[in-house]
Amino acid sequence: MLPRFVGRLGVADAVTIANASVGFLAVVVAFADVRLAARLVLLAAIADGLDGILARRYGGTPVGPYLDSLADVSSFAVAPAVLAFVVVTDGLGVDLEMLSLELLLTGGVCALFVAMAVARLGMYTAYDTADDYTEGIQTTLAATILGAAILAGVADPWLVLGVTAAFCYLMVSRIRYPDLLARDALIMGVVHALAILVPNVAGRTFPYALLTLGLAYMFLSPRLYWAREPSPSGVYGNA
Known about the structure:
The protein is built from eight helices and two strands. It is an all-alpha fold and 239 residues long. It has a single domain, classed as Up-down Bundle (Four Helix Bundle (Hemerythrin (Met), subunit A)). Strands 1-2 form a two-stranded antiparallel sheet. Helix 3 packs antiparallel against helix 6. The longest helix has 29 residues. The radius of gyration is 17 Å and the shape is globular. Belongs to the CDP-alcohol phosphatidyltransferase class-I family. It holds the Pfam family CDP-OH_P_transf.
């Protein structure tokens, strides 16, 4: 007897499910090679955009939005939180076998990041119905900024911890983030792919470029950028 999902899931759903697996791999790898784990998180963000393209091209399924949010918990809630935890504890020289204030603080902030990301993903699925913007920073973008920062070598432990804490609020804020125009989404997608494929070329140019673009969108887009047409690429999605 075939599994019940055979014939009910589409191509986009298969990419979404693969995205969740990539997030798990990032968690597994993070404690051995945090830079490779950061590249996997960025790869998951590419997959998150790809499933949107495939859903529009070939049609979605009723289960698609639910699978998307579930996959995002793995790739853009748990995985980036683990990345931040590893960078901070390594940077501060925290002994993971001994309870300390630094360990509790880092673990608490990263756990809160997961909680707020899950809350945002659930609220997005239930309440965000606008076609041209979303409320609160996208979990995909938060994960992308953390991953790009690690690949760029911007890994001061207190800075990473502070940024992770800031995302805890930004993900559930009422700040409106507009969808990217198609041309801008394409630029972001190309830089994103190059940051994964050749992160060390020319003094880590592409991770720095991705980090700069991500931060520019995070800080400037709510007031200075409003798309008049939806992006077909799905870069960063809305969740």
